[in-house]
Specification:
Strand order of the largest sheet: 1-5-4-3-6-7
Largest sheet: 6 strands, antiparallel, barrel
Distance between the termini: 33 Å
Helix content: 10-25%
Strand content: 35-45%
Structural class: alpha+beta
Number of helices: 2
Number of strands: 7
Radius of gyration: 16 Å
């Protein structure tokens, strides 16, 4: 739903590219023991990400944002990443912490449409 226009967007099926994104931005994370040292030294940290308890973890790269939140880049697109839900971070079997999702990156459909629009504009 577009909150500004109150438009409800509908996609056919469960595998439509509009349902998949590969990045999120979170609030400041809640670390279980302590924050990964590398994240605060280098500004980035590679670990595993989990969004829904039924899905397996996947590799991701965390980047520290100026406000203390995280930019999370996933190695594979994920279906139905949602504002207000939590991303959970792991190092192997160890749960490092979690953070509330405040922004979802562009969908695969949006990315493809943007590339198509650029291609048409160049012609």
């Amino acid at each position: 739903m577009n909150c500004t226009t109150q438009d409800i967007l509908v996609a056919k099926g469960t595998k439509h590219p509009a349902l998949f994104s590969q990045s999120v931005v979170t609030e400041q994370p809640h670390w279980i023991h302590e924050a990964p040292e590398q994240l605060y030294q280098d500004g980035t940290y590679e670990c595993e990400f989990k969004f829904q308890h039924v899905d397996p973890t996947m590799k991701c790269r965390l980047t520290l944002c100026p406000d203390g939140g995280l930019s999370v880049e996933l190695v594979h697109p994920v279906r139905a990443l949602t504002l207000g839900q939590y991303s959970v971070f792991y190092s192997g079997e160890e749960c490092l912490g979690s953070a509330k999702i405040v922004k979802v990156g562009p969908s695969l459909f949006d990315l493809k449409s943007g590339q198509l629009n650029k291609t048409h504009a160049q012609r």
